[in-house]
Amino acid sequence: MAIQNPTNGTYWSAMEKITYSIVSKAASMLFRPAISSMSLGRAWLHKLPNKLDQAQVHGFEGIEVFYEDLEYLAREERGITSNETPTPEAQIRAAYTIKKLCDERNLTIIGLQPFMHYEGLLDRAEHAQRIEKMKLWFKLAKILGTDIIQIPANFLPKEQITGDLEMVARDLQEVADLGLKEYPVIRFAYENLCWSTYFDTWEKAWEVVEKVDRPNFGMCLDTFNIAGRIYGDPASSTGKTPNADEDIKKSLERMVKTVDVKKVFYIQVVDAEKMRDPLIQGHAFYAVDQPARMSWSRNARLFAFEEPGYLPIMDVTRAFIEGLGYHGWVSMELFSRTMSEPGTEVPQEHARRAGASWRKIEQAIDSWKN
């Protein structure tokens, strides 16, 4: 029986099929593929059951539940047509539904994300409200069957947050200590975003993790957010920072020497398009109220090995896996303008692309070992 190569549609020889099988089994012993639910299509256009179907069909074992999907499902189940925030009871009901949908498809929920705009708030009344929201997220996480909540480094304007490490660490210690009291314990994966206001590199995020110093507080390492800050610059005519190649090389060398792999709770592997024109005023993706890297991220990420991707994301991935010795979940977290396109084929196409990307990542991992 002829079998197609899932990466390009050509037909494999018998030896190629055997080789691919061996490679896949070797990698799958240590690494499991996951995908973020919103990477299969935005919630206001694409229903979660179909997205989960496509994730299963294309070989994914894990799902990052994007809060947007839970929120839209909660509204749908309650017949809410406005954009009002669903009640805690509605969110809890939606979490049970998502857990059932994932169980039916043998999908493990690896995390709930993103718990945004938390640390360093100058408005302490707002901080107190976020703590109450976190307590609801504890309930949601337990229902979903996950022990990880992902916190992206804050990207609110400087007028609203502080970059003071002591205060930021205290805020994060507060939720970490609350998480330690839960059973099972809730873990927090802190992630630098390449446009975060203060903590926009992995080095700065690691400094936060060390300062927080709690066993349940670690990192999510994301190839795009690392390379997209150190190496990539969408506002530049070259698409790169001035000393991109040397800077990323030295940064990854520091990472391997510095980061404790036990603090890496999971990794995300994606690339991004190289902009044909600098992402500045006049560009289609330009937004006056957000940094260029944020606009780039929301519109133009790619799965690994896709064109016209150009970031050295496999060098970053190799640093995670060979350098740090990471093994565990590898998630495909895509943001793109294509996720907001209508049509039932959108989740299918994104899942297909992600699956093809994962198989190439597997092959790369195996080649490093050899």
Description of the molecule:
With 370 residues, the chain is an alpha/beta fold. The chain has a single domain, classed as Divalent-metal-dependent TIM barrel enzymes (TIM Barrel). 46% of the residues lie in helices and 13% in strands. It has twelve helices and ten strands. Helix 2 packs parallel to helix 12 and helix 8 crosses helix 11. It is globular. About 4% of the residues have low confidence.
Number of helices: 12
Note the gap between the termini. Answer: 30 Å
Q: How many beta-strand segments? A: 10
- Poorly predicted runs are 14-27
Principal-axes geometry comes out as: globular
C-alpha Rg, in Å? 20 Å
The secondary-structure class comes to alpha/beta
CATH architecture: Alpha-Beta Barrel
CATH topology: TIM Barrel
Number of domains: 1
Query: How helical, in percent, are the residues?
Result: 40-55%
| Order of neighbouring strands in the sheet with most strands | 3-2-1-10-7-6-5-4
Q: Average pLDDT, to the nearest integer?
A: 94
CATH-wise, what's the superfamily? Divalent-metal-dependent TIM barrel enzymes
Largest sheet: 8 strands, parallel
- Strand residue content: 5-15%
Q: Encode the helix/strand succession as letters.
A: HEHEHHEHEHEHEHHEEHEHEH
CATH class: Alpha Beta
InterPro entries: IolE/XylAMocC-like, Xyl_isomerase-like_sf, Xyl_isomerase-like_TIM-brl
Domain Xylose isomerase-like TIM barrel: 53-352
Protein name: 3-dehydroshikimate dehydratase
